[in-house]
Amino acid sequence: MVRFEKHTLHNGLRVIVHRDSSTPLAAFNLLYGVGSRNEHPDHTGFAHLFEHLMFGGSEHAPSFDEPLQLAGGESNAFTSNDITNYYMTLPAGNLETAFWLESDRMFSLNVNHKSLEVQRQVVVEEFRQRYLNQPYGDAFLLLRPLAYQIHPYRWPVIGRSEDHIMKATMEETRAFYDRYYAPDHAVLSVTGNVDPQDVFALSEKWFGPARPSGLPAEPCPEEPLQNAARCLTVRRDVPSHRIYKAFHAPSRLHSDYYAADMLSDVLSHGKSSRLYQRLTKEQALFSDIHAYITGDTDPGLLLVTGTVADNIPLARAEEALDKELALLCSERVEARELEKLRNKYESTMVFERVSILQKAMQLAYYEWLGSAADLNLQVDRYRAVSSEQLLGVAGKILSPERATTVYYLSQHIAL
Fold first, then answer.
1. Same topology for domains 5-207 and 230-410, yes or no?
2. Beta-bridge partners for 89
């Protein structure tokens, strides 16, 4: 069990502290409740752009990295559909350096025309390298708007188009910062060899003066139920055919989420999983195949992606894949297979909790979802999933009429 203490500042910032005296280090994690889901369809990529801008310096710390490195620390960040997360580790005795740097970014980020132009170019280059200039890179640029009709999940975190990033104005950028980079949209978690009361005092000192935005995040439109299969076929200069299938999956807070996650691992988790054993090893229809869920706050996707093996007709490979998906909807997962999955989740979570940084990230994330205490319930929730629930959830998710498929074909290979 991860024990913690919590304090909420008057401006809405929630502070979570877990003391771990086994290490001389501390992890500092600041989560902002803003991701690509909070963007306008014609102005996408802002959440990810800000992840870059936040390392460009602030009023009292023109260089973010230099003072942190002098304090013996290191930092990084990531953006998702739902959140933007900034984290650092450093010696516990130098923890106040983290408070100074991160609070200054919240108060007075140095957003100017020069920094905006530099980071726009960086993000555009990342967009091109990740999505346009590598094999299969644009697959999810094609799949997401096919799977989602109105929800903001229909574009990737980096944005729909490089034009959206290049055309971002100072006014739009500043408005995005003022709305979301505020204490009432954030959760701070600190773990390591720290005293909770000292952390709360530092939080009041450095973040107490921050003004809340007072503006709630705008609600996202609810994606309508998909009742007919959707598909798209493209031909590209790639070495092999690849199939991408997406099925709408429960939201992170839905009671069926844990069953959906386990279904994806029944299909594809390690070399004993069904898709690897039956479609890669035994029948040699796919050279690689994977299944996973996106785990989003709103209803996400269960994705299956497979690269068709050489000299295998696309239709034959897809038929075998569909058969495996249909089996999950008609046959119960055996007790031995289910117990193996339960043990996997428990061992993974126990291992993750060795890391103070992982604990800081998870405490902040679950607090943002609703309660940091839910972190301690995850193993029990996976263990509570029954074979009957898996069968029922598979029937709701994996029905063929709710499949979205992109056939990403090699222009060098016949069907």
1. yes
2. 27, 74
pLDDT digits (tens, 9 = 90+) for 24-40: 999 999 999 999 999 99
- The answer for 410, left when phi > 0, alpha when psi is -120 to 50, beta otherwise, is beta
Task: State how far the Cα of 211 lies from the Cα of 47, in Å rounded to an integer.
Answer: 20
Q: What is the distance between the alpha carbons of residues 294 and 148, in angstroms, rounded to a whole number?
A: 14
CATH fold for domain 5-207: Cytochrome Bc1 Complex; Chain A, domain 1 (3.30.830)
78 backbone φψ class: left, alpha, beta (φ>0; ψ -120 to 50): beta
On the question of pLDDT at 415 being above 80, the answer is no
Q: CA 351 to CA 24: how far, in whole Å? A: 19
Give the Cα separation of 218 and 35 in Å (integer). Answer: 12
Q: Please tell me the CATH code under which domain 230-410 is placed.
A: 3.30.830.10
**Triad 20, 375, 346: Cα angle to 5°:** 90
CA 129 vs CA 85, 133, 243, 399: distances in Å: 23, 5, 22, 35
Mean pLDDT computed over 337-361 = 93
